[in-house]
Design brief:
3-stranded antiparallel β-sheet; 5 helices; GMP Synthetase, Chain A, domain 3; two-stranded antiparallel sheet; alpha+beta
Length: about 180
């Protein structure tokens, strides 16, 4: 079986073919759980994988792990990287390197339940105002093919698309 970018291209093509034959296979549900560990420490789990979260010292955490908004940047970068590797492989492009630097701007008053003076032009809502990703990619294709790959990955990144549009979120409470 041919490996490109460490991926079995035949298996990728088969997966796409199976979904085309039965579109219901494309409907998936992903799950996660969290457990508070005291202070701002949290353990998050999906399937059999766990990730710790915390807040930095400047937000009164113990700085033992990335915080949730940093995890958003990490998730977007990981999603893009996976997209480049997969889509390059099915195009027959061997990649030598993918590096992505990400940054996002958050105004803390919204998170803290504060309203900053209007002249500071700070966002009243908690969360990212913007996210920037700088992608550096090296492969055996010409720059046009890599640009096409880049544009395709941006359009099909589940995390990127989720970040760029409104998503219905519902949360319930059970007091125990």
């Amino acid at each position: 079986m041919e490996l490109i970018n460490g991926l079995e291209t035949e298996k990728l093509v088969q997966t796409v073919g199976q979904i085309k034959q039965d579109w219901n296979l494309g409907k998936t549900v992903w799950k996660a759980t969290t457990k508070w560990k005291g202070g701002f420490r949290v353990l998050t789990c999906s399937r059999e994988f766990s990730i710790s979260a915390d807040e930095p010292d400047m937000l009164c955490g113990t700085d033992t792990a990335a915080n949730p908004v940093e995890m958003i940047l990490q998730a977007y970068g990981a999603c893009l990287t996976i997209g480049y590797a997969m889509n390059a492989a099915v195009r027959g492009i061997n990649l030598d390197d993918i590096q992505i630097e990400l940054e996002g701007e958050i105004d803390l008053p919204g998170f803290l339940g504060l309203e900053a003076p209007e002249e500071l032009n700070m966002d009243k809502l908690p969360g990212y105002k913007n996210i920037k990703a700088n992608v550096k990619i090296k492969g055996d294709a010409d720059s046009n093919a890599l640009r096409e790959l880049h544009e395709h990955v941006l359009k099909t990144s589940p995390v990127g698309v989720t970040l760029s549009r409104g998503v219905k979120v519902s949360t319930s409470l059970e007091v125990v």
